[in-house]
Amino acid sequence: MGTGVLAVLLTTLVAQAQPTSLLSERLAAVAPGDTIRVVGGIYPGPLRITKPVVLLGEQAPVIDGRGQGTVVIIEAPDVVLQGFVIRNSGRSLDRENAGIAVHADRVTIADNRIENVLFGIYLRQADSCRILRNTIEGDPTLDTPRRGDLIRLWYSNNALIQDNTTRYGRDVVIWFARGIVLRGNTIQFGRYGLHFMYSDSSRIERNRMLHNSVGAYLMYSTRLTFRRNLLAYNRHASAIGVGLKDMDEVTFEENVLVDNQIGIFIDNSPRAIDAQIRYLGNVVAYNDIGVQALQDAPRSIFRDNSLLENYEQVDLVGGGRFSEANGTFWERNYWSDYRGYDADRDGYGDVPYRAVALFDALTDRTPAFRLFAFSPAVQALELAARAFPVIRPEPKLIDVAPRMQPLLPEGIPAVPRRPRPVLALGGLALLLIGGLTIGSARLRRLR
Amino acid sequence: MALLTIEHLTKRFGTTTVLVDFSCTIEPGESVALWGPNGAGKTTLLRCVLGVLPFEGIIQIKGIDVQRQGKQARRLVGFVPQEVAFYPTLTVGETAAFFARLRGLDPEEGRRRLVQVALQDRLDQPVGTLSGGQRQRLALALALLGDPPLLLLDEPTSSLDIRSRAEFMDALQKLLAAGKTLLFSTHRFEEVEHLARRVLLLENGHLEADTTPAALARRLFPETSQYRLRLHLPERQRPEAVKTLQTHGFEVWMNGHGLEVRVSLNEKARPLTLLSRAGFEIIDFELHA
Amino acid sequence: MTTTTVRATVSLLARKELHDALRNRWFVLYTVVFAVLALALSWIGLAGGQLYGLAGFGRTTASLINLIMLIVPLMGLTLGALSLALEREQGTLLYILAQPVVPGEVLLGKLLGLAIALTAALSIGFGLSGLLLAWRGSPIGLGAYLGLFGLTILLALLSLSLGILFSSALPRTATALGSALFAWLLLVFLGDLGLLGSALALRISVEQLFTFSLLNPLQVFKVAAILLLRSDLQVLGPAGQYAMHLYGWRLLPLSTSVLLLWTLIPLILAYLFFRRRGAL
Question: CB-based contact (8 Å) between A5 and chain C?
């Protein structure tokens, strides 16, 4: 036992005692294609990799940038960097100080822990790279705009970005990149979970974007598959779950959007006259606004979605209505505020769902009236509108045969929910205070 | 020093004036009746003395202004209202303890006063279940908390039956003998006769006369005139009683509550004796001029 | 002779008021209804999010805040309106005032006793739903939860003091209670609807709309509650953004002060009326 501890201690000491330039020297010594194993130790950055080598870290060796510049720079193709702890980059946004900067193709960055960096992994004109299972953490003490992007792709096509976790960054940026696969990542506590522009033919699936200002902003791209992602708790100023701006040919399928300011925000999408967007089987729940469309959402199909308890289910900014003449179809969606029935028991309501909330109609026309949201007066107004159809507004959409039960896709990466002991203590304290007050005053005679 | 001084008391409710420039002083140990028809201002006068209504003029108890130092002044006063109202959620014991504490006294003092009015066996009984007489006795017990020198009573016997009334008057007599000062309103001459040494005659808010019970009697029952004796009997006995009295030469007629008999000055009690000997049950009687 | 301090008198009257309130069937009914509804709404709100381990606060928050805005003013206003008027009618008020107490002590005792009773009632509702939310792992934080409780107590206090104002100013229980119910309607429904209507007709600006809405203490409560639960006012649209931009988190102390003012002013008025009216 004692010797074991001693051994570990010795190893650590030996590793730390190694000359700081050892890693660079070892790199210089190997031939292209060789594998270098690094066992523990702390190595100073920056480390520049200019040969196609495989760097395998064991026992979490550290490369420390000591707050200066970029920590690891990869300039050779086919490099593999795996199992390292990379930390303390510089803080210059102008120089784009990063944990790892990649300027070459077919690089694999896997299983690293990247901490206390400005940018995380930065791919610049680096095609066919793989970023796998890394954990990347920015500097939470910086204001969000002063932070860097924890994953950033810039003119880097055909990347596979899978099972990474990022926290406390600015965005995950994918710009000017074709054929990207973004899968199974968890992106939290940033500004834009995903900032996606000019990147055609990509696939974004099974990611979780939680607690960002915007879950995912998808812009100026075509042929995107966006499916089975979870976007929740994206709040703060003008926060949205997923925004689509000038997007064409999107399959937006089986995503779950919960408790965002706006679930799905649609701005001029599709843009191309022959493009279409399909919203299929999504769950949009507990958002302030479920779906918000600026002006209109032409050539869009909303089918089999479940709109659950959004404060405003669908908002068409400026009022008006979605029209089938423009190619907008609302079909077989579940609406938690549907008050119809299903006499023939086929699972679909026998009377159409009409989005006719009076307050929604008011706020669509005059957004300032949202001030009265949550007021009992508004509830009374809705009741009155239901009872007296005279003041009922034109429906902004009609779903002819809405679902009677929500359709909840399975296999979405869930968020574990734990009991909250502190809150429980608070509740218990209040309960005790109330109970004891009432109990003592009731039991004790007034003497 | 006078116990109670009232100077130029005027009380208005909106445009109606209930008391006009009322002044008087009451010395310690006095027993003063307020006499006058309904609406003469008796109740209002008592409430002003308690300081629970704002008014013009000055009222002092032992030199303490009831408006400006109401709290100290009320400590010197025990009050029995016309219709006694207690908190229905409290028992007799709790009520006594509560009001004792409110006067800054030990709750034990409340219990002692309950003994004084023979309610000590009903400590745990809710006040709502007390009889009229018991309630009045409880009110008296509460009025005696802290042994205040001045007792104000607003028609204290009006809701009592003849027996409870006698008991209550008895209790008041004892208190008077013990040195308390009484100021009470009433519309029963017997009470004035039994209890008061002095009568303040109120009419339309004016102090009509500051006089004695004997003088009041002369005023009410001038010698030349005859009196009307009002007798309360159970309804079924009334026709028989009319016959009985008529056979003895009395002028009798029935009214809503019982019988009225015309009697002369020196045989006021004869109808009573006659009827009770004949086995009639006389519940109550009143004498009117 | 023993002298009673103001504190002793007030505390005795308050204890007596609490004792009575807990035996008042309205109070018991309110307590139970509030607790049951708060629990039910929390349960419903959490049930939907079960599938992905997510709990949302969209309509659930709305219905919780709605419940508080509906029932808490009703509790305070009715209990307050009954407080003096009922005693005046049954004659006990005269009897109390004939004791060595001053009207201010009676008023304060009433307020304190009823406030404690209301706090106890709300604690039970909040405590139960807090336990439920904690057990189910709701995302609501302890700070926001206790903050909402505090705001709710303030709301209860202000409606209580409004109710006491009616009770002291109006001679009969029926009129006091009627006025309290009308005030409730005004605060909860008519005020907002009126402002909404005028805004539609007059096209007033966002700033004016926000300022006018703050005349209604219920709106003040709502804005503060949403700020607490959400950390921003986005859900209230442009007016919310305007308020957030103008005041930021200062909205919380500000609205607390406004609510306290709404408690204090009716109380002062109630005292003046009570002193003038006395036991009648």
Answer: no
